[in-house]
Design a protein that fits this description.
By secondary structure, this protein is an alpha+beta fold. It folds into two domains: about 5-120, no CATH class; about 140-215, Herpes Virus-1. The chain has seven helices and seven strands, in the order βββαααβααβαββα. It has helices spanning about 55-60, 65-75, 80-100, 125-135, 145-150, 165-175, 210-215, and strands at about 5-10, 25-40, 45-55, 110-120, 155, 195-200, 205. The strands form two sheets. Strands 1-4-2-3 form a four-stranded mixed β-sheet. Strands 5-6-7 form a three-stranded antiparallel β-sheet. Residues about 135-140 and about 160-180 have low confidence and may be disordered.
């Protein structure tokens, strides 16, 4: 997979404005579309997966239940559990929390939103090459250039809605091609308030020390394989 873009937006026109006695619970109505395209021919759709579901809001907003709900929604897609857990679940939960708290949605029994996932895939020969690199111990990964590492955007992580920290939090307000992960995928530890973090040019965020150590060995982003400059 060469790149991944996730877009989530609310469909206000289809939202229920009046209470409906026939609906026993407040609901999220979620339209999901996953589309795979070729990196060589972006206009060509290789695979499409669509699913429309209604789920109880209280269940979806529970961290104990959201993982199982999202896995059930994409069960027929065939993705790995790791991809669902690290990419789809955090972004959907983040947006659900945001949408549920919007003043415009107060009193609404049904909040309808759409999530679109666009996956750009590599040609078969590029995929084979990447597999060979991962399986061959003799492969020598190129470290990123010192100047590109020094140019990484550094910040402090804060898990709040403070406007001063919008570079890390604006994805919660409207996800437009970015991710709302709350864990560093290098060390697998969750971010804590005050942690020093760094943003890659591809917008993936890691602990600063983790990504520096990674880039000193490999110039590829751990998540999307974005290529940093090399010497």
């Amino acid at each position: 997979m060469a790149s991944l873009n996730i877009t989530i937006r609310q469909n206000h026109e289809s939202c229920s404005e009046r209470p409906d006695s026939k609906i026993p619970f407040n609901l999220f109505h979620i339209d999901l579309e996953i589309r795979c395209i070729s990196s060589l021919h972006p206009e060509t759709t290789l695979e499409t997966y669509n699913r429309s579901v209604a789920v109880r809001r209280d269940m979806f907003l529970s961290e104990e239940n959201v993982r199982d709900i999202v896995h059930s929604i994409v069960a027929d897609w065939g993705s790995t559990p790791e991809f669902v857990d690290t990419v789809i679940v955090p972004d959907m939960l983040s947006y659900a929390l945001y949408a549920n708290g919007l003043p415009v949605n107060l009193g609404r029994q049904v909040i309808k939103w759409r999530i679109e996932i666009l996956i750009e895939t590599c040609p078969d020969d590029e995929i084979d090459e990447l597999i060979d690199e991962s399986l061959t111990s003799s492969v020598k990964f190129k470290p990123a250039s010192k100047s590109s590492i020094e140019a990484l955007k550094r910040d402090r992580y804060w898990d709040d809605e403070d406007e001063h920290h919008l570079p890390l939090k604006k994805r919660r307000k409207l996800v437009e091609g970015s991710s709302s992960r709350k864990a560093c995928t290098v060390c697998l530890d969750e971010f804590s308030d005050g942690d020093e973090v760094a943003s890659m040019p591809c917008n993936h965020v890691y602990h600063y020390n983790c990504i520096v150590e990674w880039l000193e060995t490999s110039h590829l982003c751990p998540l999307c394989r974005y290529q940093m400059p090399v010497d």
